[in-house]
Amino acid sequence: MNAVVLMLVGLATMALGFFFYSKFIAEKIYRLDPNYRTPAHELRDDVDFVPTNKFVLWGHHFTSVAGAAPIVGPAIAVIWGWLPAFLWVTLGTVFFAGIHDFGALWASVRNKGKSIGTLTGTVIGTRARNLFLVVIFLLLLMVNAAFAVVIANLLVANPASVIPTWGAIVVALFIGQAIYRFKVPLLWPSIIGVVVLYALIFVGQSYPITLPESVMGFGPKAQWIILLFAYAGIASLLPVWVLLQPRDYINGLQLFVGLGLMYAATLFFHPTIVAPAMNANVPDGTPGIVPLLFVTIACGAISGFHGLVASGTSSKQLDKETDARFVGYFGAVGEGMLALAAIIACTAGFATLGEWEGVYDKFGSGGVVAFVNGGGNILANGLGLDPGLGSTILSVMAILFAATTMDTGLRLQRYVVQEAAEIVGARPVQQGWVATLVALATCLALAFGAGGDGSGGMVIWPLFGTTNQLLAGLTLCILSVILIKQRRPVWFTAIPLAFLLVMSLLALLVQLGKFYADQNWLLLGMDIVILIAALWVAFEAIMAMARGAGGEAVAESS
């Protein structure tokens, strides 16, 4: 099959979802009000609450939620064949991710910018909120620790990516000052920023940077992990307009340039998809496609982490409530476009089926390496780029997105620590810098828990996708309760909710048996904690739905 057909069908489906389905949701379900006073104005402090141009905010939101996951998930899941991955990415983006991300943003804006965890206490009850915070904290711990390890591995493996990765921070600082301090119109900082960012890729190829083999007993990967967390800790405390917003915005632009190059190369090269539509010869040890497909591809179809970003940072920066459609739903579409590109790169970027099967010889293979190599081949054949340059462009794209997720993830983890400290009355921990230190300490403890090389951050990776999808289901629970109480149609959130809860709970049970058989007691214990907390929250949400259906309609928050 020609990859161009897959690309056009996928992009057209997502475009129809944004232009028509999201418009219906905005007008008939969430009923956005252009005159509603958002928390960015009502609670403005120019640190977390900052009214923001919708294009800049979209850049922050999209790059924060994207990370490396919409590349890694599809790049692993195509082992079952390209068709299941394609269907889940396209339909999941339109009917699951869009309404989830959009809804979390809307619900938070209507409740003074509260995070989805805090909102659980308002909508369902205190006990559900406390359990929900446990699930959220564990997910953020996985995201921050694991992504630090992923980025460190890429920086060690690709020394040419070091200069553009860290140079992007300097570019972002200048853009933030230009837009907010000197009131420069958005166009020129955007153009100059993208040009400089891509120029840094060429500089990086000429001047690759490697760290010393050992510093105080730490190898290069461990050194990068420490540096990454030091940066993320500082970034999480700065006002969002100084670094977080402009960095995410410029990364969003460079991603769309990268995606444009990838899709243009596919159009000109029109490669053949060599992978099977349904793989009947999966390697031994590959788990069943149901339910594992739906948790392997989390970001790119639907992701609970998106709800944390939407309600944790994006809701505090929304200028007008009507901007929520563009920021939330189109942010999900951007993620779907990246996942679609990953599917094409990992199924049409190889010369033969035998070459593809050589890469996908066991479950978990492929990943970023398959995306970079396959995508590099498509760029080389379609646009005539040097294969090394094409691979570097895709490597830097993956690193920058993983890094922006860390920035936002640590800020969100600080919020969760502060909320938990408020619940238990630990006043010192409610301070921003103390909560950040707590978040950093737990992430570093996990990253280095399995040894001095920092590989511990990947220990709980098998639970990441499952917990992520479970959180998305629980977020849809909250949205469904709100809609029921306001006497609005609920099927548009309830159907995705039911599907996600069933698949993620099945995945937890499947993994529970595997962890027990492998005698992996850490993962077994975490699996049990997450399973109990999720079932409890889901039960209380169902009870809240029943109470809402039988009670009087609740007025909208104002």
What's the short version?
With 558 residues, this protein is an all-alpha fold. Helices cover 73% and strands 0% of the residues. The chain is globular, with a radius of gyration of 22 Å.
Verbal overview:
- The chain has 558 residues and is mainly α.
- It has one domain (3-549): Hydantoin permease, CATH 1.10.4160.
- 73% of the residues lie in helices and 0% in strands.
- It has 21 helices and no strands.
- The chain has helices at 3-29, 39-42, 54-66, 69-77, 82-109, 116-123, 126-157, 162-181, 187-206, 220-237, 244-269, 289-296, 304-312, 323-348, 353-359, 367-383, 387-424, 432-447, 461-485, 491-517, 521-550.
- It is globular.
- The chain starts with a helix and ends in an 8-residue tail after the last helix.
- 56% of the residues are buried.
- The mean pLDDT is 88.
- The chain crosses the membrane at residues 6-26, 62-80, 86-109, 130-156, 162-179, 186-204, 224-244, 256-277, 289-309, 329-353, 393-412, 433-452, 458-483, 490-509, 521-539.
- This is Carbon starvation protein A.
* Helix/strand structural class: mainly alpha
CATH topology: Hydantoin permease
**Rg estimate, integer Å:** 22 Å
The count of β-strands is 0
Summed over residues and divided by their number, the pLDDT gives a mean of 88
Poorly predicted segments: none
Largest sheet: none
Q: Helicity range of the residues?
A: over 70%
Enumerate how many helices there are, as a single number.
Answer: 21
**Overall morphology:** globular
Per DSSP, what share of the residues sits in E-state strands of 2 or more residues? under 5%
Spatial separation of the terminal alpha carbons: 52 Å
Keywords: Cell membrane, Membrane, Transmembrane, Transmembrane helix
Family: Belongs to the peptide transporter carbon starvation (CstA) (TC 2.A.114) family.
InterPro entries: CstA, CstA_N
Protein name: Carbon starvation protein A
